Amino acid sequence: MRYIVLDLEWNQPTSYQSAAFRRVGDSLLFEVLQFGAAKMDESLNLLDTVSIPVRPTHYLTIHPRVKRMTGLTQEILCDAPQFPQAMEAFMDWCGEDCAFLTWGCDDVSVLQQNADFFRFERPLPPAYDIQRLYAQASGKNGQTSLKAAMESLGVKEDEERSFHNAMHDAYYTARVWQRLPNPMDVLAFAQQPRKLCHNERRSRFRVTDVVPSVTEALSSPALTAPRCPTCGQATSLKTPLIPQAPGKYVALSQCPHHGLMFVKARFSLLPGERKGLHLSVLPANRQTRAYVHTKELQYHQMRKRGVGPAWDPEDLSCAFHSNMPFEDA
């Protein structure tokens, strides 16, 4: 048995009103641009790595965000094989007796959609989720970026391996897997591809403001005295703005008229290295109150130990924003 730690880079329509998207629609929401993988044996030895570029045939213009993050351009990909040939080469490299391991379920879903669209007939191997194993091992809830997991496990970044390159990200994911206490427990986290479906009404990450920096935004009145969504009056923070992950903060605030509010601030990188803020202020319920109080306790314990978040608040390159439009989301 060989374990293939897989990562993909993919393109997306520059506009959902574009001719390219109108031609293919939900049947090809994302088009694979690069296969990256690390091959491991049953003793978790790293045997080989591979990078296979893919020439797009439908979304020919590389989305600006994809180009900025990955460095992939039309010029780089113009001589690459198209998806069916690239997929064939990748599966031949994987071998017959293998399983896919990924960081989250996005890659498997995009890969299956591309295989279906291009009528690639060889079945995909079973797939397992290292991100969920990491969450169990670290006692975390929800999703953690690969970079944050590396930092927590002491996996050093290689200057010659940049992030958002499929082969490099696969290599880093393999190193994280090796560091987990019971790596083969990943087989308890089987995953199935999920159907992707564009939906204009879906709640996605939206920028409510453009900010000069995360630090300045966190000290601005918008976040130190967020407005009540009902009466519009300033509320007072009852907890600090607690860092959860790169670009993500939560808190509780009090409106004198409408009670306790759940405050969630998320930051993202915008074109031109600008930074966007999405601020959500909603009435707190029992679940969100308990969630914030738990995170506040953990935060104060960290401060007592003299440690803080394991990331630079201004570095949003690995901020986790899962905007994948799953049909069943």
Descriptive overview:
The protein is α+β, with helices and mostly antiparallel strands and 329 residues long. The chain is 30% helix and 23% strand. The chain is built from 11 helices and 12 strands. The chain has helices at residues 19-24, 64-70, 74-77, 83-94, 106-117, 130-138, 146-153, 166-179, 214-218, 221-224, 286-304, and strands at 2-11, 31-40, 46-53, 98-102, 127-129, 190-191, 209-211, 236-237, 242-245, 248-255, 259-269, 275-283. α7 runs parallel beside α8. The chain is globular. Mean pLDDT is 88; it is low at 200-205.
Let me know the number of strands: 12
Task: Give the mean pLDDT.
Answer: 88
Structural category is: alpha+beta
What does the radius of gyration come to? 21 Å
* SSE pattern, N- to C-terminal: EHEEHHHEHEHHHEEHHEEEEEH
Helix content: 25-40%
Give the overall silhouette: globular
Question: How large is the count of helical segments?
Answer: 11
Query: Main beta sheet: strand number and arrangement?
Result: 6 strands, mixed
**Amount of beta strand:** 15-25%
Question: First CA to last CA: what distance?
Answer: 33 Å
Q: pLDDT below 50 for ≥5 consecutive residues: which ranges?
A: 200-205
Across the major sheet, the strand order is: 3-2-1-4-5-6
State the main characteristics.
329 residues; alpha+beta; six-stranded mixed beta sheet; six-stranded antiparallel beta sheet; 11 helices
